[in-house]
Amino acid sequence: MSEGKNSADRKEEHLRLARGASAQSAVAAGFDDVRLDHCALPECDLDKVDLKVDFLDRPLSAPLFIGAMTGGTPRSAVINRALAQIANTEGIGLAVGSQRASLENGISQAELRELAPNVPLIGNLGGVQLARAGGLDLAKRAVDDLQADALAIHLNPLQEAVQPEGETDWRNVAMAIENAVSSLPCKVIVKEVGAGISVDVARRLFECGVWAVDIAGLGGTNWTRIEALRRRQSDVFEPFLDWGLPTATALYDVMQVMPDAVVLASGGVRHGLDAAKALWLGATAVSLAGPVLRAVITDDDSAPDIVAGRAAIADWIAQMRLTMFLTGAPTIADFRQVPGRFGRGV
């Protein structure tokens, strides 16, 4: 567990560690605290429950996208090609992992657009990197290379603080985001990586002009734990391993204050029922990352299992449709109005 790996080596290590049980948060995302009322008289046809939406000006079979996981290494390139094929076939979006490493190493991901011509592609760059000299040019290159429909700027101050090679000077990141909004040829999304986005930060980001916020809360793959595993000694970070806002709590809080905002949900979304609950709480779309990675990759040497990835997504969509049917909601608009409650002990 070296303290001085380059970005490509670090990404490979991230990919390996992210599939293990030790990378999961010890705090739940909170979706078990959402209770939807069962409707014994649904008055709708399960086979005709409609999940189709437009997202980033492209039609989707359901408000889902494969969340950002990896990028910048030969192994991750193979995985991303498989994910692009899965996303395009299943009619959902795809968000790539950070493009910084690939761009700095001269590796293009343009083929992903060829593999996924019909669905939204979301690029990815770190907020702290965006704020550095040349950051806006790097963002433009990321969008151009991917022909991205949007660029996700990720905020990860805790991960960077724990990461042996992390960058901890976070001055001027908000200004860099505002400049990106006014300069990039696509929509800008800002996301966390697993510690959540609070109401105050979400409000500030929307004031900067971002199109959407992905609250990316605590409860799923935990990058703080992953970075701690990479350190020889991590005792100082032990109290912070599950620092953050659980996903359902962060989503609920933001939507209570900004009910019309475009808010995306990720972090500990385990299955289609959780995804449906996120929609009920107000999310515009939901990201699935860890479950897809574990379905597609079973060990470090195996080829990505596209069939298993497609099956996992089909199961999620079926579970979302069943949730809506069991609440008597034939459309997403109807589903957002069904009775339910959120809070501990519901």
Q: Can you walk me through this structure?
A:
By secondary structure, the protein is of the alpha/beta class. It has one domain (7-342): Alpha-Beta Barrel (TIM Barrel). The protein is built from 15 helices and twelve strands. The strands form three sheets. Strands 4-5-6-7-8-9-10-11 form an eight-stranded parallel barrel, surrounded by seven helices. Strands 1-12 form a two-stranded antiparallel ribbon. β2 and β3 form a beta hairpin. α2 (74-90) crosses α14 and α13 (290-296) packs across α14 (306-326).
Write the layout of secondary structure elements.
Elements: H1 7-18, E1 34-36, E2 53-55, E3 58-60, E4 64-66, H2 74-90, E5 93-95, H3 100-104, H4 111-115, E6 121-126, H5 127-130, H6 135-146, E7 150-155, H7 157-162, H8 173-183, E8 187-192, H9 199-207, E9 212-214, H10 223-229, H11 247-257, E10 263-265, H12 272-281, E11 285-288, H13 290-296, H14 306-326, H15 332-335, E12 340-342
Parallel strand pairs: 4-5, 4-11, 5-6, 6-7, 7-8, 8-9, 9-10, 10-11
Antiparallel strand pairs: 1-12, 2-3
Indicate the radius of gyration in whole angstroms: 19 Å
Instruction: Give the helix tally.
Output: 15
Kindly report the average pLDDT value.
91
How many discrete domains?
1
Overall helicity = 40-55%
- First CA to last CA: what distance? 43 Å
Compute the number of strand runs: 12
What is the level 1 CATH name?
Answer: Alpha Beta
**CATH topology category name:** TIM Barrel
Q: Tell me which CATH architecture applies here.
A: Alpha-Beta Barrel
Proportion of residues in β-strands: 5-15%
